[in-house]
Amino acid sequence: MKDKKIVTSPSYVIVKQYMGRLPIYHFDAYRLESSDEMYEIDCVGFFWGDGISIVEWADKVMECLPDEFIKVTIKILGKTLRGVYVSYKGKRYRNFMEEVMEKVKCRK
Length: 108
Description:
Elements: E1 15-18, E2 24-28, H1 35-40, H2 43-47, E3 52-56, E4 69-76, E5 82-89, H3 94-103
Parallel strand pairs: 2-3
Antiparallel strand pairs: 1-2, 4-5
């Protein structure tokens, strides 16, 4: 078994990189004041690079995001219960999302 690396929120850094089959760029926009700060770290270069970008608090930097993306929202429904809502924007992810919906029990 390969060593597993625990992935945590970047917290005090804007982006953290994890290496795997594809690099993962994990952004935390919580402390950003504007989209300008995301542009300053060349977010576009990350988004259009060879890896996967994950953006926490993406609502704060929506204008930086690509035209097409997958959105995952986690809501607290109870002390130990969470709701996970997945949606997408753009045609690029339509087939992927249809496959996911076939494989897991979910509601439209």
